[in-house]
């Protein structure tokens, strides 16, 4: 990710941007054809008249010269194709009957009751089918039954195949570290065809991805667009979508306009950090490189002016350099430049660069501050770049600190193209549509939200003549969804790429009927304005209710593991008929739910992931460090001593109904220390109710990995710590069953060893050990054993991703498997909680919980869903029931806390004796 490689995720340096306008693309197509005809005819005349004086390379050179100014695009007759160049012989024609089609717009976004014929790799027709079918041979029929159908999802910023999972040192091909300027490198040359993520991303509806080099360099190299389906050839080349002809041929076919190329650039922190540069150094590197390319381009233009005028005397060879040809093509406007760029300073620098060297920019990626400077984007050379964004992933480094969930809507209001992207594997691209759902939730227009992952990226990539839309003649890349695509948790029922169905025996989870229509979303007008007014740092401090008593009317009261009461009146302490002074708040059918709990990230211990000066720091590990004498005997640290309050992610979590967090000290080693439970709404540690429980549980990590002692050493050390603990120490308290031991472990074999160790310690001590496994990517394989051993599990993250070798055996859930890890564990009586990895996502806990229920096919009730992210977590992490029962409550309008329709408006906190408005 854009997080820098240095200490967070070695080898993963990423997060990127992009743009373009439809009208302009159409204009370019017509100009293309005219110029090309002119060049070709001129070339023919020259050869004929001057043949005697021509050098031996004249024909090839004149062809090159003739093509020099031709703009890329499909051949003129492309729209009349009857078969895709990617068609696989033997693929049956398929008729999708009775679809609710979202087409990709812009003239008509929705067509209901439509039939779609997929044949020869393209969409043969769209609409009522009776007349046409009479002439058709064999075809398969799929009754879509009115389900929503969209174009395949297009991910404009991915590292699929170059930053592969499981992450292995032999397969890290994202970044070269050979210098800041590398336009000659190509992601294609590192494309791993065995990445586990292809299948997973297809199961989320992703059909096309732009595979970009990383952001360690100012110019990281050329990107390639791929389709994600497996091919018969099994080669990287066979996955490519319209690659430039030059990938395997130096000759130019004068009958064809060139195809669009893609290139990665990056400004800001990543290239700076990697090369020990400043922003000034990086931009000089850009300017020096573009100056080199400009000189070559001007040399070529001067050369061709003479060659085309048959002035061959003393002309020599055509001036070109293989290293620089791609950057020269950028200056010819034939490359879609994608620039990873965050802050106003970087955006402004880059816009000046485009004007100094006169090249178009396709998109700014990551682009966290684009919403603050739309005017700057509009000053870019030739066209306004698009902004390719995350929905809520922000604040992970300084340049992302002012990122806003309202950026998509603000940019759209300013007429700038918005693309939502994954930066896979930074975000698992399987859930790219979720980014569009969140952008919609925070106010982006529904059609633009869906376009942001389909037709808009297709247009920005220069591929909107064949992907991103459901239109006759377009590639047969189609997704049938189990709900409206903007309803939370929308999951494919089936995915076609090039007309080939991708999921064998898909499992479909029944969604509530209300999920078949576009959800309504809350009003965030004021918050969006504040984001601009305060330049991305709007005040988040809640305001306290002034009255002693607040009465909420028209609410649905919900409490996990207690009972859901009927619609009615709920007062914090008292009924209202005899109180005089109270505030009343109409929840308009909203609800009051338990406050959610966050676990798994360093929330409360660090503010900006990439800035060590904002961190509590990493604890010393007794297994691998020299513990200073001062700490000997007190090696187990207390997170409560390092807590930081009122961080932005912490307060945003509070605004999202996450009213407390349980966080252990940060550790890379075996013993992390004692976690603490704290209020996410408190201003400082000494405020009433700020620290909910000083000590929650004892946390250790057991994992495989380079630099770690062996798993057997880690288990042996843990055994020793538990069996030989001095009386009164944290490990002794664990061994006596007083506080839980929480082991962060992913791998089923490691978890099996832990199950055995628990029995061993219990046999020795004669008390039941409270053991919780967190992470737990492969825990579902041992669900029965975990249930029998009474071991709880915190699934972190709640939707699995096989990031490392020790977590490859995930249970992916629908549509690939009927069960999810969560439903499997619950079915075996395991107490389950859900966690997160990074603190920015704490605010999304309500949606993570809802998602787990939505894919359970009705197996997880509403109160069980709330418990996954509240009472179960408290129990698994050692927060006492008395504390838990006096827990916070969250008031929402528009729906319940689990609904995309709902907005959190107030927090009721008995332990802080407060009602706060958000
Ligand atoms: C299309 O599906 C809808 C929803 O299931 C159904 O009501 C309608 O009758 C179907 N139409 C046809 C022509 O089958
Ligand atoms: C070059 O690559 C393209 C795209 O993969 C392919 O269609 C074409 O057959 C290749 N040409 C040669 C000469 O290998």
The largest sheet, given as strand count, sense and whether it forms a barrel, is: 9 strands, mixed
How many whole angstroms does the radius of gyration measure?
Answer: 29 Å
Overall strand count: 35
Shape summary: globular
User: What compounds sit in this structure?
Assistant: 2-acetamido-2-deoxy-beta-D-glucopyranose
**How many domains make up the coordinates?**
4
CATH A-level architecture of the largest domain: Alpha-Beta Barrel
**CATH overall fold name of the largest domain:** TIM Barrel
Which class best fits the helix and strand makeup? alpha/beta
Q: Note the beta-strand portion.
A: 15-25%
The low-pLDDT segments are 1-52, 560-570
Percent of residues in helices = 25-40%
Average pLDDT, all residues:
90
The tally of helices reads 24
Defining key terms:
TIM Barrel, Urease, subunit C, domain 1, alpha/beta, 35 strands, 24 helices, binds 2-acetamido-2-deoxy-beta-D-glucopyranose
Structural features, described:
The chain is α/β, with parallel strands linked by helices and 918 residues long. The protein folds into four domains: 68 residues, no CATH class; 313 residues, Alpha-Beta Barrel (TIM Barrel), CATH 3.20.20; 86 residues, Urease, subunit C, domain 1 (Roll); 292 residues, TIM Barrel, CATH 3.20.20.140. The chain has 24 helices and 35 strands. The strands form five sheets. Strands 1, 7, 8, 9, 10, 11, 12, 13 and 14 form a nine-stranded mixed sheet that branches. Strands 2, 3, 4, 5, 6, 15, 16 and 17 form an eight-stranded mixed sheet that branches. Strands 18, 19, 20, 21, 22, 33, 34 and 35 form an eight-stranded mixed sheet that branches. A hairpin with a 7-residue loop joins strand 8 and strand 9. Helix 6 packs parallel to helix 8. It starts with 16 loop residues before the first strand and ends with a strand. GO terms for molecular function: allantoinase activity. InterPro entries: Amidohydro-rel, DHOase/Allantoinase_Hydrolase, Metal-dep_hydrolase_composite, Metal_Hydrolase. Keywords: Membrane, Transmembrane, Transmembrane helix. This is Carbohydrate esterase family 9 protein. One of its GO terms (biological process) is purine nucleobase catabolic process.
